[in-house]
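Message: Study each token:
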Amino acid sequence: MKKSLVVLSVLGSCSYVAQAQTNVTVYGLLDSGVTYVNNIATPSTSNPRGTGSRMSVDSGDLQQSRFGFKGVEDLGGGMKAMFNLEGGFAVDTGASGQGGLTFGRTSIVGLSGNYGSLQLGRRKDFIDEVATYYSSVYDFGVFINGVHDNNLDRVGGNRANNQIRYDTPLFKGLVLNATYGFGETAGSTSTGQSLGLGANYTNGPFGVGFGYWQSKLGTLSGGVNTSSDQGTSLGAGCTPSYGHPGDTCIKTWMLGSSYKTGPWRFFGAWSKVLQPLATNGGASAPLVAKFAGTAGLSPFTAGGSNNNSTNVFDLGVNYAVSDSLRLVGSVLQSRYGFVGSDTKGRLTQLNLGLTYAFSKRTDLYSYVANLRASDMYSPGITGGAPGADNSQTAFTVGLRHKF
């Protein structure tokens, strides 16, 4: 009798654990393809303007490969506890993404309920959602990061540590967002601080969204800005030697909209990036008169220390041929201002592609892109910049699987 009670007790415990685990989801995405890129800079002493083509097996051309765990617990009264742990990796090499962080993509815990959701930890800001809904990044992935000011406008997604994020409940199609990243510096709340605001409204086939983000310098540690915003390491204007801890180094706005009618979906986005510290002159922001194709790569580069303002325009269309086949296209142009020069740089990129869904979890994609630069250096599409050459074309065929 006692043995039977012990067995029943163990079985009951196992049943309880299994029931609890039903609220936890293990998920992931693998994305890999074959890519061709021409005009990648291969300078030499005899040919300083030399270029060459490149073939490669890449990971994450459309979406970065990742694995994760997420869960929700019902606390009663309409309140729920939630968590999300997500790490990125490269399919072609197996290497971890985000500098080797185990859960570098997302690491949050939070509460949600009738008054919205509150999250603590590391994750992307609201601009990422605006970009996903209304820019070309959903259809062309990393291929558009270069023309988007080398991703300084956060279209490809950047993350902030030490973050507290609040989203309102969805009310008649509208959601509002506020995000704050703590610099965690004793004696100074502004050092390393980041701040974001956003809103999105949907009504049937129509949607419009807005996001704002700013980052402040942290302290210098090993030559790296210790700001809560991890995206600041990408911007030359956010190198600590260009300013003082607590100085604002990045300001970004993004506005986007879309409309769907029948098999067609039209979308567009505008983003603006300011690098206030690029105006401080000296060696960090050299004064230059005009663009010269044979000069070095410091002046007239997207997101460089001399690039104090950028406007990016991103327009596109999707057409659903069938439930499985979708055609995509977009045109992007970004315009650049440079410190101490009347020269206005310009990048123009054209994208065409298609996706074919074998199932809800597996699809094939293929697209081609051409990027041309005028009065500035091209950041390139993927795999390397073309150097002094003003044009680059990239083509990829990839497979994406979700689990």
